[in-house]
Amino acid sequence: MTRRRLGFFTRLLDDVPAGERYRLAAEQIQHAEDAGFDTAWVAQHHFDGEEGGLPAPLVFLAHVAARTSRIRLGTGIITLPLEHPVRVAEDTAVLDLLTGGRLEVGVGSGGTPASFAAFGHDSARRSQIYAEHLATLLDAWSGRDLGGGNRLYPAAPRLLDAVWEATFSAGGGARAGRAGNGLMLSRTQPRPADDPQATLADIQRPIVDAYYDNLPSGATPRIMASRTAFVADSRADALRHAELGLGRGRLPFELPDSGLDQRITAFDVHLGTPQDVVESLLADPTLDRVTDLVFQVHSVDPPHPLILRSIELLATEVAPALGWVPSTELSTT
């Protein structure tokens, strides 16, 4: 069986100015590498610093690449309709060489309609633009003629096997499966209108089914599940910070009572001591079918030192209890 990988994800939301956000996020990724994490992922968001603090993920990852040596670095995601695909191909080709082949490229159609106007696009056409831009990106990495006899330099055929597609739908899962790409499942998955309190497992199961049903014979599945996990030395500390963090966020669905317990459920948060988090994660049946388990602290967003501590506890106590084996241990067995 393929070894499951452990990942760290950030939207760069520390409550500090942008430059300090970047410094802290880089330190968090370095800490994750030191703790044994296999991957680190950053999100791209335009214009709204409260939604996400990083509009240029490839620039940031180039900086992080110079400060790390082993951890794989990924985009979760590049909003592909808002980018020129040939430029994405060029930037990722250069960055993959600079990282020593550690780059993973997650792409998606984007989730903030208001961002599209600034780039001269209509949000209503996002799916069509996404498909067109993804086809061009793959053509570039494949070395095909991009017009006028121009082909990508430097060549980047390896990246064809490093593509991940984010989706909220079974149709998107089927598309990623047919292409043999990785599937990215978000902890911010919207709830269906007819079942606003459905669990992540309820709404992501059909996506995973569609992915596996359409994966070509012999292809290796790649499924990433992103989950919120804040691990602390005491449950009381975790709850105290959750009350602060979750109180700032808008609920993903309406609740008659929006107390802390209801918000923890609504935001799909796994929190507490390592044992608390292990028990909570074991109750999520989707995780039995994924190849990559990626953790973030949003929307709790505790202070930076507690994020570092949570990273340590995830690697030393939570992930091993879920069957994760650090790569250094794996190589000696």
Defining key terms:
single chain; 333 residues; alpha/beta; 8-stranded parallel β-barrel; 41% helix
Instruction: Determine the N-to-C terminus distance.
Output: 15 Å
Q: Using DSSP, what is the number of strands?
A: 9
- Main pleated-sheet profile: 8 strands, parallel, barrel
**How many DSSP H or I helices?**
11
Mean pLDDT: 93
Globally, the shape reads globular
Kindly report the oligomeric state of this protein.
single chain
Q: Could you state the order of secondary-structure elements as H and E? A: EHEHEHEHEHEHEHHEHEHH
Order the strands across the largest sheet as they lie in space.
Answer: 1-2-3-4-5-6-7-9
Beta-strand percentage range = 15-25%
Radius of gyration (CA) equals 19 Å
Binned, the helix content reads: 40-55%
Question: Low-confidence parts lasting 5 or more residues at pLDDT below 50?
Answer: 329-333
Classify the secondary structure makeup into a structural class.
alpha/beta
Give a description of the structure.
41% of the residues lie in helices and 15% in strands. An 8-stranded parallel β-barrel has the order 1-2-3-4-5-6-7-9, surrounded by 7 helices. The C terminus is likely disordered.
List the SSEs and their pairings.
Layout lengths: L4 E6 L7 H18 L3 E4 L14 H9 L6 E8 L5 H14 L4 E6 L17 H17 L20 E4 L3 H10 L2 E4 L14 H15 L8 E9 L3 H14 L11 H7 L2 E4 L1 H9 L9 E5 L7 H18 L5 H5 L2
Parallel strand pairs: 1-2, 1-9, 2-3, 3-4, 4-5, 5-6, 6-7, 7-8, 7-9
